[in-house]
């Protein structure tokens, strides 16, 4: 499925950050791409193309221009 950057929703912050045992780090934001792919943002940098438990993992430092929603993630408490 092809989609444009305009179709991608902004990141939704996870507050407080949620410990993700499989990644051994905290999820600080998440979102879904138009094709249903899950993405989780974690602190720092990650290896490009990293996928854990069927979710693409993105490092906060790897996307300095990330856009964030005013709404919190469903993972937030």
What does it look like?
This protein is mostly beta strands and 77 residues long. It has one domain (5-62). Helices cover 0% and strands 38% of the residues. Strand 2 (25-32) and strand 3 form a beta hairpin. The mean pLDDT is 93.
SSE layout and pairing:
Elements (H helix, E strand, L loop, with lengths): L11 E9 L4 E8 L5 E5 L8 E2 L2 E5 L18
Parallel strand pairs: 3-5
Antiparallel strand pairs: 1-2, 2-3, 4-5
User: What is the topology, as strand order, of the major beta sheet?
Assistant: 1-2-3-5-4
The SS-based structural class is: mainly beta
Unreliable residue stretches: none
Count the strands? 5
The tally of helices reads 0
Radius of gyration: 12 Å
H/E topology pattern: EEEEE
| Average pLDDT | 93
Distance between the termini: 33 Å
Number of separate domains? 1
The main sheet comes to:
5 strands, mixed
State the share of residues found in helices, binned by percent: under 10%
Which percent band covers the strand fraction? 35-45%
Query: Rough shape?
Result: globular
């Amino acid at each position: 499925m092809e989609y444009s950057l305009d179709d991608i929703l902004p990141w939704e912050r996870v507050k407080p950050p949620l410990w993700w045992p499989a990644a051994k780090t905290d999820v600080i934001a998440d979102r879904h791409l138009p094709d249903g792919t899950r993405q989780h943002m974690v602190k720092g940098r990650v290896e490009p193309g990293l996928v854990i438990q069927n979710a693409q993992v993105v490092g906060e430092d790897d996307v300095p221009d990330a856009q964030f929603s005013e709404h919190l993630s469903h993972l937030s408490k």
